[in-house]
Amino acid sequence: MKGKRKRQLIPRNESETVEFKTSFNMETVETLVSFANAHGGTVYVGIDDTGNAVGVSLGKETVPQWINEIKTKTEPSLIPDVEIITIKGKQFVALRISEFPIKPVSVKGKYYKRTGNSNQLLSLNEILNMHLKTFNSSWDYYFDPNHSVMDISDDKTLNLIALYNNERKYPIEKDVFEFLTKMELIRDGKLSNGAFLLLMRNDSILSDIELGYFQNETSIKDGISISTDLITEVQEVLDFLRKHISKEFIITANPARIERWEYPLEALREIVLNMVVHRDYTHHGNSSIKIFPNRIEFFNPGHLPDTISVNDLLQGTYTSECRNKLIAKVFKEINWIERYGTGIRRIRDYFMEYGSPEPLFENFQHGFRVTVYPLDKKVEYAEMSEKMSEKMSERMSERIINLIKNNPEITIDELSVLLAKTTRTIERNLAKLKAKKLLERVGPDMGGYWKVIQNK
Fold it and tell me: Which of 8, 38, 60, 454 is most exposed, with the fewest beta carbons within 10 Å of its own?
C-alpha cells in the first residue's frame, strides 16, 4: 500500500480502464476482475458516475478490510495496488490491478470482461477461449473426451500423409501412428479434438455445414448437409459451389478459349478454408453457405476476437489469432493455406483482380459472415482486366509507401512478408515508384534507407 498524496490527477470519465465508485462494494470487486481479465485498470472509490468528487470515509482498518475481501472473493486471488489520494481535504482510494497472467479470474464463481466502460459476464465459450489463450493453446489441441483413436479412419490418415508428402523432397514413411504423433494429432496415445475433426471415420454433427442453392430469398432449389471430416468437407463444399455458379467461355484471337466463372474460384476456396480453420466448433450452431442469384453468403459460428474489429481486418492492422491452431497447422503443412493472418487480404485481392465488387465482412448474430457478389457481365473482360490491374498496382504502391513512411529502413524481404507478395513483385513495384519519382533510395542496398518524395 502506498502512502497519502496531496494531489493526484484523476481521470474525468470512465473508460475501458477506469471506473468510478462512490463506495466500496461487490461491484468494485467485479470491476477489478473484469480489468484483470482484460488489460488492467483502476477503480477510484469516492467518485460518482459523473466524475464528481464526493470522497470516502476511511478508518484505520478500512483499506486492509477491502483488500482482504478482494483477495478472498476472487479466484485466483487478486491483490490490487492501493493509493490513498487527498484533494482539497477529501480522500479517495485508487485500486489498481494489472492484467492477470492466468485467465480468466472469477469473483464468487462468476467471470467478467470489460467492454467499453461496463462489465459483462463471460459466456462459457468465452471462458474456455480465454483460458486456452493463456496457455497459447486452442480447443482443437485438447484431448477429445468422447472419441478414441478407434474413431478415426486409417484410409483418411493415409490420404492426409499423401497430401503432406506431395511437395516434399523427402517424404515421410506411411507409418500412421508416427505421423499422427509428429503432427501432435495424438499425444500419449490420446486423440485430440482436431484429429477427430480431420480424420473422423463416421460423420459427426460437430463438423456439420449446411449448403443451399436458392431461386430467390425464400425458395430453395437444392440443398445438402455435409458432416464429414474437414479434408473431405472442403472438397465437397467446393464441388457444390462449382455446381451452382455459372461460367462462360470467352473467344479470343488465340485457339484456346478463356474460361471465366462468375466468381473467382481461388477466392471461394480461400473463404471455405478460412471457415474450416476459424470456425468455433464448441458452438451449437452450424456453418452455412447460401447461394442466391445475386450473391453468396458464407456464415460461420464464432465472432472475431474482441481485440480485432472488422476495420482492423480490412486494413490489415491486427495480429492474427487463430481459433484452431492444430487444424491451421495441418492445413499449412499440406499447403492448403499459405500464411496465418493473410486470408482476408488474399480474398479481397482475388476479387479486385477479377473485377468483382468488394466482399462484405461482418460480425453477424453469433458468428461471422462473408457476402460476395458476382462479376458484372456487362463489363468487357479485356477492359476490366486492364482497369483492375491498374487499381491493384495503385493499391500496392500505396501500401508500400505507407510501410516505408513508418520504417524507412525496411527491407524488400520484410515488405514481401508484410504484403504477402513475392520479392520479385515488390522489386517491380519499387522500380515503378522510383520511375515516377515518388520514391528514392538513399545510400547502399545494405545500410541505406528509402525516402518518400511526395504523398501518393
Answer: 60
Give the three-class secondary structure for 360.
strand
When pLDDT is cut at 50, 70 and 90, the band that residue 360 belongs to is very high
**Alpha carbons within 13 A on the beta-carbon side of 292:** 13
Mean pLDDT check: name the lowest of 69-78, 198-207, 342-351, 366-375: 342-351
Secondary structure class of 368 (helix, strand, coil): strand
- DSSP track, 403-416: HHHH-TT--HHHHH
List the alpha helices (DSSP H) in 223-380.
230-244, 265-278, 310-315, 325-333, 343-354
Contact between residue 19 and residue 117 where contact means Cβ atoms under 8 Å apart: yes
Q: What pLDDT does residue 249 have?
A: 65
Residue type, 234: V
Buried b (16+ CB within 10 A) or exposed e, 29-66: bbbbbbbbbbebbbbbbbbeeeeeeebbebeeebbeeb
Please provide the distance, in angstroms rounded to a whole number, between the alpha carbons at the two ends of the chain. 54
Which of 395, 267, 369 has its CA nearest to residue 310?
369
Structure confidence by residue, pLDDT tens digits, 225-255: 999 999 999 999 999 999 999 987 665 555 5
Whether 7 and 87 have beta carbons less than 8 Å apart is answered as yes
